[in-house]
């Protein structure tokens, strides 16, 4: 049952990621959608982790939903697509903002949870 | 209708990807996230460029496998949280290794996947042409 709920969370997270991506692709020429998804997901997971939820609730929301919502593979394939189209500066910018931003936001999320 | 089919496919495959990641994580903890992330980078690079060089596949299926399964199998949020957990636990060496292997490894795994997918996709499409 827990496995099914984690799957449902991941399904909804993936669909959410797809819908945001197709919406933002129309207005942006670079992987802005994945960046926003990964950064917002990092903040949310840090927050959830700090809230001391019931273990099953955390698994469904944190591992299921936000795990499915954020993505490491698309991010890296996008980095290489920028690399191959000679957009090296944008590749570096995208990589740095993702990694530094993600680490900063997961910490901020965790820190915010302590204010509740 | 086509859009619904795509969303449904992403949802079903995304659920499977998330369940696989969870089961691997149960066994391996943060090393599980590292494993799924590197494996997923290779797989997504491979799949994307294989179909690009081989032939068109149905949009719903490529979205289901790539965006759904592999996208959900890998995770950026847990990657970030794993780093924070290692930091809070004072495991500085593990933190450094995890960061470096994820960053360099993800990029290299995607590169290898793209190269392999491109090459094998081209071979498949060439052998298909000879048969015709």
Quick tags:
heterodimer; A: about 120 residues; mainly alpha; about 0% strand; globular; B: about 130 residues; 5 helices; about 90% helix; flat
Explain this structure.
The complex is a heterodimer of chains A (116) and B (132). In chain A, 83% of the residues lie in helices and 0% in strands. By secondary structure, chain A is an all-alpha fold. In chain A, helix 1 (2-25) packs parallel to helix 3 (55-69) and helix 4 runs antiparallel to helix 5 (88-113). Helices cover 89% and strands 0% of the residues of chain B. The radius of gyration of chain B is 17 Å and the shape is flat. Chain B starts with a helix and ends with a helix. At the A-B interface, helix 1, helix 2, helix 3, helix 4 and helix 5 of A face helix 1, helix 2, helix 3, helix 4 and helix 5 of B.
Question: What secondary-structure arrangement, pairings included, does this model have?
Answer:
The complex is a heterodimer of chains A (116) and B (132).
Chain A: H1 2-25, H2 32-50, H3 55-69, H4 73-84, H5 88-113
Chain B: H1 2-28, H2 30-53, H3 59-73, H4 77-88, H5 92-131
Helix pairs in contact in B: 1-2, 1-3, 2-3, 2-5, 4-5
The largest interface is: A-B, 49 and 48 residues
Cα end-to-end separation of chain A? 30 Å
Q: Cα-atom Rg of chain B, whole angstroms?
A: 17 Å
- Uncertain runs of chain A are none
Shape of chain A: globular
Helix content percent band of chain B: over 70%
Strand content of chain A: under 5%
Mean pLDDT across the residues of chain A is 95
Overall number of strands of chain A: 0
> What is the ordering of alpha helices and beta strands of chain B?
HHHHH
């Amino acid at each position: 049952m827990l496995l099914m709920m984690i799957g449902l969370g991941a399904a909804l997270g993936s669909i959410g990621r797809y819908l945001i991506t197709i919406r933002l692709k129309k207005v942006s020429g670079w992987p802005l959608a994945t960046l926003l998804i990964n950064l917002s997901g990092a903040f949310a997971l840090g927050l959830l982790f700090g809230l001391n939820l019931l273990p099953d609730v955390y698994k469904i929301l944190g591992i299921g939903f936000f795990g499915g919502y954020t993505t490491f593979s698309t991010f890296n394939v996008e980095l290489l697509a920028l690399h191959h189209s000679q957009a090296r500066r944008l590749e570096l910018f995208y990589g740095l903002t993702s990694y530094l931003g993600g680490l900063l936001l997961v910490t901020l999320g965790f820190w915010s949870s302590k204010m509740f | 209708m086509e859009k619904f089919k795509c969303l449904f496919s992403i949802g079903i495959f995304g659920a499977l990807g998330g369940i696989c990641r969870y089961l691997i994580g149960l066994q391996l903890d943060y090393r599980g996230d590292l494993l799924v992330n590197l494996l997923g980078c290779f797989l997504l690079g491979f799949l994307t460029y294989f179909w690009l060089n081989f032939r068109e596949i149905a949009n719903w299926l490529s979205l289901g496998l790539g965006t759904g399964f592999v996208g959900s199998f890998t995770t950026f949020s847990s990657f970030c949280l794993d780093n924070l957990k290692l930091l809070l636990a004072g495991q500085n060496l593990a933190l450094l290794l995890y960061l470096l292997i994820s960053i360099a490894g993800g990029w290299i795994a995607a590169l290898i996947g793209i190269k392999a997918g491109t090459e094998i996709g081209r071979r498949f499409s060439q052998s298909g042409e000879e048969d015709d």
